[in-house]
Design goal:
39% of the residues lie in helices and 25% in strands. The chain is α+β, with helices and mostly antiparallel strands.
Amino acid sequence: MNFSIKTFTIIIVIFLALNSFISNAKNRGIFNENRNDCFMNASTQAISHINELRTFYNKFKESAHSPNFENHKPMQVLFNYLNELEKEEPSPISGSKKFRAYWVNNFTTMKNFKTGQHDAQEFISSVFDILNNEFNKYLTEASENITQNPISTFKLQIKKTITCNHCGYVRSIDEPGYLLPLTILYGPLSDLKHCNDLTCCLKNFFEPTVMNDWTCDNCRQKNARRLKTISFLPKYLVIQLKRFIYGGIANKLDDAIKFDPIIEIDSDIIDQSIKEKYHNKNFSYKLLTFICHEGGPSGGHYWAYGKDSNNNWYKYDDSNVTSITPTILIDILNQTKEIGTPYVLFYELDEKTLFSHERVHQQLTQLKSSLQELKTRLETLRKKLEILKSKL
């Protein structure tokens, strides 16, 4: 059968259209039913890319050892919503009004989300707090300890070590959370500077700080040095770029902040306990999904980007889902075009690196144990030789 160039072109166009249709059918959008649900829709799309939540649901929904999800409404509501997103249908899902109303009507910590536009990171933190408690209850009721709380994979802990510059007294404070809040501005108020990439934001967050007004608990003198380190590494590192400034006149920092698809967490900002376990290695995190914002502090619009299991990237803009080419993704990461400002970034730990560190740690532990055993045997042999020598 002979095809003309025109016919062949039409077939290719139809094929590409069908391929796009099938691909987007696996990446459903969400209708913005309240016309200001974009903060919630973007947050939900980002959360949907977390494998632990999906694995938890799939593992427990058919298990005879699992309590009934009906008794754990927050989990049921979230999983039902995420399951709708996973259905291979081309149309966006509805229900954002009902989904929002559930959280607002059942939890006092979320009453403020009833109407209007809100902060995406505040919504994520509030929902995580609720889910963390509910998952813990669920696992307590389970007859077998099959898995961990999936929200614990976001657990981040910052250790603040304050050292008095007079007597050397040390005070440590551990601050747990789900997000790492990074400021864009840095330096003294009289000479504020702006970061232009994520590396700068990370560096300034962990920069040692002089605390002139801090009073020592031991000598009651002022002036100390504060050092911040990561004392608990999460599987999912969620970074918030602090763009909104409140107090007096609200403002938003629209600075272009470049960020990489892979970031290294330097051992210099890792607590000593983790360094000893993993032998001072850096840790790699891979970009999984992120939320962008455009507009001012009292409004604007949110949307999300995320990659699937085949490393294909998509833009989730309420009901619209579009594929993102590598070129466009590079433009977004490098902030070379006016495409909104990145606000909340989700990175996933490269577990191959972590596994290799753990393996080295296990091997060294085994080696130490073997050496100790050899030392004990040599000491026993030495004593026997001493006894034998005394008899000669």
